[in-house]
Amino acid sequence: MTDARETAASEDIPAPVPLLDPREGIPPVTASPEALAEVVAAFAAGSGPVAVDAERASGYRYGQRAYLVQLRRAGAGTALIDPIACGELTALGDAIADAEWILHAATQDLPCLAEIGMRPRGLFDTELAGRLAGFPRVGLGAMVESVLGYALEKGHSAVDWSTRPLPEPWLRYAALDVELLVDLRDALEAELREQGKLEWALQEFAAIAAAPPPAPRTDPWRRTSGMHKVRRRRQLGVVRELWTLRDHIAQERDVSPGRVLTDAAIVAAALAVPANVHALAALPGFGNRVGRRQLEVWQDAVERVKAMPERDLPQPGPAPSGPPPPRSWADRDPAAAARLAAARAAVTAEAERLNLPQENLISPDTVRRVCWEPPADPTPEAVAERLRERGARPWQVGLVADVIAKALRTPAPEA
């Protein structure tokens, strides 16, 4: 098999063959306990790995729940399952628990699959495999095209998958998403083995499968787009109050929060701290489509913040949990800035030599933390221990511990 770089760069690759229909046609949507039991039995009796995908309704519905789950396995064919109609899919997850699950960008789908009772014990992530193999484009369509020579149908990834019934073109698209995942997995495994990177990938896949559920974000309202404009504590209080109210309304209505009130509108209200409903209505995002009763709800939230004592208002930023932004290192700690510059250059050079993204070689945050607070004696062994403490896998430690240790011994700049 040719090197991934040659594959991507070759000008002699024939035009991709359009993949228009699943091999066995579009399967009926599984939407009842009886139909689900048949699917469970079929996939339990199947053989080999299981291709798995999930479709969400991001931008339309509240949260990230799965509205369609697609699977394909040798001996079982393809299944399209409606988890809203079927409920939990724990029995299905148990039936394929011992199989390797093949997903593309696994970390995007695993949370919503876990929510309905499906958790893999082992997996193969075709997107991550593509990154490690050095492919310049790692979207599913690009990977299928460059590795297998087929062109997948595009255009339905961002639709409202909570729609019922699902249109046939959407179901065709969904079935095709798992049609070639097993073939793609096999080709990428061969590519990684040829490049000497298969063990790296297996360690990454094991880490993903074993990772605990993500912890809830602290102060999620601070991620409101445009927050950098908001500086005063009472203005921050308005953002927090409006964000929290919006989230409650969105959850109650089961719609995306952005469809209740945009981030831009929240920030506009925070900057203005409007005096009354009329002033609020004049702000961007609170125009004609917002009724009087809704305006009063939002203005009541603003009034609550106006009445808050100073002690209850949020602080300008969350408590720092790590090194400061690198742009401030040169002033605060020139020696640390020199270490970071040397470490970044060394890691970048190593990533280029290995033909993989720097962030997959080692987390940039890990590099920053080690450079800000290095071991007292920055030997390769001491650096390796720090890297392991930050969750680096053995293959990563083996490749970067020496180069980072050398960077940590970079002389401090003269005053």
Description:
The chain is an alpha/beta fold. The chain folds into 3 domains: 4-210, 2-Layer Sandwich (Nucleotidyltransferase, domain 5); 220-312, DNA polymerase, domain 1; 326-408, HRDC domain (DNA polymerase, domain 1). The protein is built from 21 helices and 8 strands. Strands 2-5-4-3-6-7 form a 6-stranded mixed β-sheet, sandwiched between helices. Strands 1-8 form a two-stranded parallel sheet. β4 (66-74) and β5 (77-81) form a beta hairpin. The chain is flat and about 65 Å long. The relative contact order is 0.09.
Q: What is the distance, rounded to the nearest whole angstrom, between the alpha carbons of the first and last residues?
A: 54 Å
The coarse silhouette is: flat
Number of helices: 21
User: Can you write the helix and strand succession as a string?
Assistant: HEEHEEEHHEHEHHEHHHHHHHHHHHHHH
Per DSSP E runs of 2 or more residues, the count of β-strands stands at 8
How many domain modules?
Answer: 3
Question: Which consecutive residue ranges, at least 5 long each, have pLDDT under 50?
Answer: 4-10
The average pLDDT value, as a whole number, equals: 93
Radius of gyration (CA) equals 25 Å
> How much helicity do the residues have?
40-55%
CATH class of the largest domain: Alpha Beta
Strand portion: 5-15%
Query: What fold name stands as the CATH topology of the largest domain?
Result: Nucleotidyltransferase, domain 5
List keywords for this structure.
Nucleotidyltransferase, domain 5; DNA polymerase, domain 1; 3 domains; six-stranded mixed beta sheet; two-stranded parallel sheet; 21 helices; 9% strand; flat; HRDC_dom
